[in-house]
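Hi again,

Forgot to attach this to my earlier email, sorry! This is the prediction with DQA bound. I've pasted everything inline since the attachment limit keeps bouncing my files.
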Amino acid sequence: MRILLINGPNLNALGQRDPTLYGTMTLPEIEAAVVAGGEELDTEVVCFQSNSEGAIVDYIQEQTPNAQGIIINGGALSHYGLSLRDALSDTGLPVVEVHLSNIHARESWRQRSVTGSVAKGVITGLGWSGYMYALDYLVTEITQGSGQ
Ligand code: DQA
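Structure tokens for the complex follow:
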């Protein structure tokens, strides 16, 4: 099984961005943890980060035929990235959206996610562990089907 782990704008700066919101782990550290978690579940996790919405849309379109699920933290694109939303929807794959911070406890404009509406579910506010929970969910969903 192959799962895409996609991170959007500014998430390449994790570790330097406000650690009270986003924690202290860098993106390569988080990616390594999810890849290792995937290995334990016989799952290949392929990582991609870009600060550009178009590059993420291109990546999703290219990789979809070879993937079974998507974990995505779209960063600020989550709140307004309609082409990203459409690209995720067009895959037909199960998507789990992750936010490190709790978007519902922040500014009102962050509390809406346009990409969340095409996800199976959204994990928000649980820090980097959210990516691990997303992986667990997707592997179970894809191999057994949760019925949801
Ligand atoms: C974020 C929340 C977004 O509002 C913000 O723009 C980010 C990170 C999070 O992981 O908490 O870049 O997606």
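The chain has a mean pLDDT of 97. The pocket of DQA is lined by residues 10, 73, 75-76, 78, 99-101, 103, 110 (CB under 6 Å).

That should be everything now.

G.
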